[in-house]
Amino acid sequence: MNVRAQIGTMFHLDKCIGCHTCSLACKNIWTDRRGTEYMWWNNVETKPGTGYPCQWEDQEKFRGGWEKHNGSIRLKSTGKARIVTNIFHNPHMPSMDDYYEPWTYDYQHLFNAPEGPDQPTARPISMVTGEHIDVESGPNWDDDLGGSPVYAEHDPNLAGLSEEQRRQLFSVEQLVFFYLPRICNHCLNPACVASCPSGALYKRGEDGIVLVDQKRCRAWRSCIAACPYKKVFFNWHTGKSEKCILCYPRLETGQAPACFHSCVGRIRYLGVLLYDAERIADAANLPTEQLIDAQREMILDPHDSHVIENALKNGISDAVIEAAQDSPVYKFVKVWKIALPPHIEFRTLPMLFYVPPMAPVMAQRRDGALDSVSDNLFHDIEQARVPLKFLANLLGAGQEGKVLYALRKQKAVRWYRRALTVGDVDLETARRMLRDADCTEHEAQAIYELTSLCTVEQRFVIPPMLREQAIESLKDPHEQKQNAGFGFLSGPRRGL
């Protein structure tokens, strides 16, 4: 057992209001420099919708992540034999059109235009070329309109939906959508790290945050193509790759990342997860339908004495172990099993998880009356306007059962709390719902408190970073030979 510590994150989609405050907080701190105008390390997408960059989930187009090959896994976008042929051109890398050409406005003309017969205007100007442009897209071009076929018909998550489901989802009178905030997942098996010929990307040993060494980056841009979530960006001004760093300077001083701290809906949770690094290769190589369970099994019980013993042997401090024991992410992912990883079929084993959103019911009118009554207490989940298949494609690797389990437990908790606080729901019925949803009353109360009544300290359990000890460990030759990722590199450096 090779116990490692990883900063894990979780977003509760049922609480996100799509205000983009997180995006602006990140933008103002990290990407307000020349060359980063188009970068959104944190962005909020409307689902159904094509996202940012456009259709990033379509790996037939972008070839990101890993694929099974001859009994093992390999990078889809690059490899030893393919890197040389793609030096000057990578056909699977997003273009400017897939992002958008950032622009500002010619305010000087607006303010200083000479007197004339017409009102002067501030025309859009490219922030890359400085020339006048016609704005045709943006980072949230389909924001709040993702439920319409005009913008959402190319969403890869619509695969497998029937024509009737598509029609219901896109009909104007039944329009529905939800928000999907995205940051770098800081994966356990990051394709970006394994793809870099220069070894510039690496995963910090003490907390698992994936970073880019700007001094080693040589603008190969293999990381951009390899990341299936397209959360690595190229700075056209400096010629270096950049990405979300999970605000590690803030974490090292006990502060939450900027996007977490600024979140209006309080949907974001952060905590430590202990995992067994020896299982990464085997887990990533399993059939798609087994990936979610395999990842959960990799996450270890921080209260287990055997796990604690091996963690201490591996240099993990008591303070970090205690933080893992209080981690809200561990509870949502491992204990309650209502948080799911996005597109785990990409086999990067992401360390960002989502609680799937509840959706309005798709009621039907029969004999002049609305038919929304059923003996099945969870009937409205199957009748939701956002089909289970869509959520399963996004969060369940195509398995509707994983999403259904999470939604049933969420609904049961809601009914139970409504029975206790409002009283218009029969308590015995609510208790039966809890049993059917594999949830106890004690667990329901814990989910309710951590979802609705949680304090900042409960949402963000930030461990001491112990940077001095991490730097000291670099002097150990054995530590420097640890591999990460399964590409053609021997592994990134641990540390700074």
CATH topology of the domain at 265-459: the name is Alpha-Beta Plaits
Shape: globular
Helix content: 25-40%
Residue share in β-strands: 5-15%
Essential attributes:
globular, three-stranded mixed sheet, two-stranded antiparallel ribbon, 15 strands, Alpha-Beta Plaits, alpha+beta, disordered C terminus, 496 residues
Could you describe the 3D structure shown?
The protein is an alpha+beta fold. The protein has a domain of 195 residues: 2-Layer Sandwich (Alpha-Beta Plaits). 32% of the residues lie in helices and 14% in strands. The chain is built from 22 helices and 15 strands. The chain has a 3-stranded mixed sheet with strand order 12-1-13. It has a two-stranded antiparallel ribbon with strand order 2-7. Strands 3-4 form a two-stranded antiparallel sheet. A hairpin with a 2-residue loop joins β14 and β15. α16 crosses α17, α17 runs antiparallel to α18 and α17 crosses α19. The longest helix has 22 residues. The two termini are 25 Å apart. The relative contact order is 0.16.
Layout of secondary structure:
Blueprint: E1 3-12, H1 21-30, E2 43-47, H2 59-62, E3 66-69, E4 72-75, E5 103-105, H3 107-112, E6 124-126, H4 149-152, H5 163-170, E7 178-182, H6 191-195, E8 201-203, E9 210-212, H7 222-226, E10 232-235, E11 240-243, H8 248-251, H9 258-262, E12 268-276, H10 280-284, H11 291-298, H12 305-313, H13 318-325, H14 328-335, E13 352-355, E14 364-366, E15 369-371, H15 379-382, H16 388-395, H17 400-421, H18 427-436, H19 441-452, H20 456-459, H21 467-473, H22 477-480
Parallel strand pairs: 1-13
Antiparallel strand pairs: 1-12, 2-7, 3-4, 5-6, 8-9, 10-11, 14-15
Helix pairs in contact: 16-17, 17-18, 17-19
